[in-house]
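Suppose you are handed a protein chain with no further information: no name, no annotation, nothing but its sequence. What can you learn? This example shows the usual starting point.
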Amino acid sequence: MSNLISCVTWVKRGVASQHPQKYVLDEKELGRVRALARIELEDAQVELDRAHKAAMKMGKGAEGEEADDDDSDRDEDEDQWVDEEDDSMVVDGEESGKPARDPSAKTDDLSQYNLDDYDDDEVEDGMYSFGPFSNIKGLTFYRDNAEDPYVTIKEDPEDDEREELEILPTDNLIVTAKTEDEVSQLEIYVYDESQENLYVHHDLMLPNFPLCLEWLDFPPASSSTMQTDGPQIFGNYIAVGTMDPEIEIWSLDVIEGMYPDMILGRPDKTAAHVPVPAGTGKKKRKKVKHRPTSTAHHVDAVLGLSWNRTHRHMLASASADRTVKLWDLSRAPVAEEEGAGESVPAIRSFDVHKDKVQAVQWNEKEPTVLLSGSYDRTVRIFDSRAPDTGVGAVLGADVENRGPPGLMKTAGFPRKWSRA
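A reasonable first move is to predict its three-dimensional structure. Written in structure tokens, the prediction is:
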């Protein structure tokens, strides 16, 4: 896999901040970063200890006296080296094997011009002369234009960078999820229609392979970066579903961001999820067992996302764990037991399919109605307040993905409709 763009989405024109700000890591944010990275650090420490022990057993971890002896022997060998060219460098006035040259002796016809002292500055009355500028008195030199009182227009590098990162209200923004050499990232493109110029404005690193994107303008409750004086009502955010069971929400108005503004799910429970073995390989492989599902979080990859444009704090997700879940972005993260950090649990979970749920979409006319499509070759339409009362359709092929709002793309046609 050299270069792959797995998903792409538009950003509403005019909602992006005209001057995006850089990521600031304060004490509060640092505490949240430590809580999110605790599991990864512990796993890395365990692997490091194992590698060190393995190196010691293989005889590659020689330390202590053996390492010191090698260094001492190397120093003794270096002291025994003699530079044969030291004698050849003789300072004027010192004795040497060759007789000293008389400076008054004329060796050639050019000696009368005294070329040996041609570059030496002349000293007159204790002052050095500066060639054609020797008659200028009180000449002052400033190393920086900021110190020169005669330079009224000061140069500020931050202003130049601020101008380069400026996003105009007429610019179009596109967010792509790109994976190159096993490194995944979000690339935010800016398209200047007047000059027909498309370029990458900034990028954000992702922890795993991205599968789906969903833009939203609702600021999550745990967004602690770039707070304004007044209450923030609208924002510019992107929800990302990856091969991990968690959903990450990033701010597109922050450059060089290190961590998302909110994580939906339980990273402490699912970050190191190990797949169930399919068999030993000696016999016929058994059917892969599904992971135990949870009503509070996904346990498998997130395949689809849909943001409710009427109830802006609602986000729906579809997962390979065969469930559809609803998330409330206005709820603050809840502290878990035994110091496991904070998490945002789902408010509802629907088990309306028998296989991986590939796509989910809110109804624009009825904002409480959801449409979902699965690999079990069915689509379901149900009210999120009463999921048991809904209708479904059987298709001739698997559901691939969703297109524009209200449209679900499939590889076949409905064969029959039935009550869910």
